Please model this.
Amino acid sequence: MNGPPGRLAQTVEFRDMAESSIFTRILAGDIPGEVLHETDRVFVLRDIAPKAPVHLLVIPKTAEYIDVVALAAAEPDLLAEMIEVASLMATVHADGDFRLVFNTGMGAGQTVPHVHAHVMAHPQGADSHADGLTEGSLGDA
Ligand code: AMP
Model:
């Protein structure tokens, strides 16, 4: 009997990687990362390769959920907490307005199989928003 075909097989492999996701290892202190904020269930990391003037990641401490669909189905209150923390971070580290992106699936650009929200914003007092917030594009149409 062959294993699950195509996308399902890929998803199973992707999920296996979550156990030791880079975010879990940063939270454990095994590798460096700039953690800006923490609650009992959520932490915030500055993105190492920013795609916006302010680019933060809001991440549940549990690695149980591969993406936002799985999280929303199982623990909507944890998803709500992530959004609350995203809003707080946009107030503290930016001008209060923000874009929230959940890349969902490898085809949409998700590289870390541990659900996380990208918070993209402009700093307080930025004189120009002309650079835009480019993250969120899936490439050329
Ligand atoms: P995604 O492609 O949606 O899965 O997002 C993963 C994000 O994690 C990317 O924006 C990466 O730049 C970011 N990232 C990867 N490694 C690190 C790290 N060590 N510290 C902070 N951010 C990271």
Observations:
- The CA atoms of residues 122 and 129 lie 7 Å apart.
- The first strand starts at residue 35 and ends at 38.
- The beta strands are 35-38, 42-46, 54-60, 99-101, 117-121.
